[in-house]
Amino acid sequence: MVEVHLERSINNWKIISLLKRGLLKVWNGITVEPLLVFFTLPFYMSSLAIQNLSLEKACRVNLNLSTSICDAIAQRNRSGFNETEEIMAQKIVAAASVWKNVIAGVFPAVLLPLFGSWSDRNKIRSVLVIMPIIGEVISNIGFLLCTYFFYELPMEVNTVIEVLPTAITGGANMVYLGVFIFVSTTSSPENRIFRMGIVQTLFNICVTVGNAISGVMYTSIGFYGVFSLSLVMYVLGALYVYYISNDGRSDLTKWELVKDVVNVKKTVSSFKFIKKPSSNAETRQIGAVLFLDVLVIGPLIGKISLS
């Protein structure tokens, strides 16, 4: 009996030791993953508050409808408004969404290849994630100002603040580009795919949680609470990236680095990887992946923008 008990104790100790080693390995391997929480969670958590702020401004400021009607629209109390009044407010928001989506799509499409190629050439990664965070910080400060000066600023100002700082700094796509670059350069070939899978899983979790709590947060703490909390999380994310960043030293001066961002010739040369594979089959495979990405993501983004 004593020997059996001793053997069980040894086995339990081995299991605990293996778990500790595994957890320590995971802990030591964490680099940029927490940034996804600091960025993705507030990004989606504030989405409903932003939509409601635009809708309320369209109703109260642009259309100058009565308080009772706008309150009923905000609370979805159909006994307090008719369908025509709701459609009028939604048309104003929809009209602004047209040029908002154009800006949100054009700027990142130009910036991502430029900064991605620039990052590869100069081994600088932190800029890819800090710059979009700065854009979100500016946007949330703007939302707080739009809320404070609610009746002085029309809905269009709210839309500009929502899209412009985010677009000109790359937005969420720039952050995810930086995150995957961080992961690919700080992990070994053996666990690179595993870590990328963890990043994607963590992203999906943050999106789900952010969307799930967006309504609760909006009804609980209102515009000021949601935008202030988002602002704090973005700042914490920027500080975290600054703390963990280990960018290589470039031979270029700061001004030369800035000019190198718009080096179109070097950026275009980066796309030669498409022709790099030795076999035609690999080339066709890359082309098929790019085509399917457009085919799948395009309708998905369109569906989301209409929802």
What proportion of the residues form beta strands (DSSP E)? Answer: under 5%
Q: Please tell me the overall pLDDT.
A: 82
Unreliable runs, pLDDT <50, ≥5 residues? Answer: none
Do you know the CATH architecture of the largest domain? Up-down Bundle
Sheet with most strands: none
Rg over CA atoms, rounded to whole Å, is 24 Å
Count of β-strands:
0
Number of helices: 12
Query: What is the global morphology?
Result: globular
**What series of H and E elements makes up the topology?**
HHHHHHHHHHHH
Q: Quick one: CATH class of the largest domain? A: Mainly Alpha
Task: Describe what this molecule looks like in 3D.
The chain has 307 residues and is mostly helical. It folds into 2 domains: 30-265, Growth Hormone, Chain: A; 275-307. Helix content is 82%, strand content 0%. It has 12 helices and no strands. Helix 2 (33-45) runs antiparallel to helix 8 (171-186), helix 2 crosses helix 9 (192-244) and helix 3 packs antiparallel against helix 7. The model has no long low-confidence stretch (mean pLDDT 82). InterPro entries: MFS, MFS_trans_sf.
Name some characteristics of this structure.
Growth Hormone, Chain: A, 307 residues, 2 domains, 0% strand, mainly alpha
Topology of this structure?
Blueprint: H1 2-29, H2 33-45, H3 47-62, H4 67-74, H5 83-122, H6 126-148, H7 155-168, H8 171-186, H9 192-244, H10 254-261, H11 264-269, H12 280-306
Helix pairs in contact: 2-8, 2-9, 3-4, 3-5, 3-7, 3-9, 5-7, 5-8, 6-7, 6-8, 6-9, 8-9
Structure summarized in a few sentences:
The protein has 307 residues and is mainly alpha-helical. It folds into two domains: 30-265, Growth Hormone, Chain: A (Up-down Bundle), CATH 1.20.1250; 275-307. The protein is built from twelve helices and no strands.
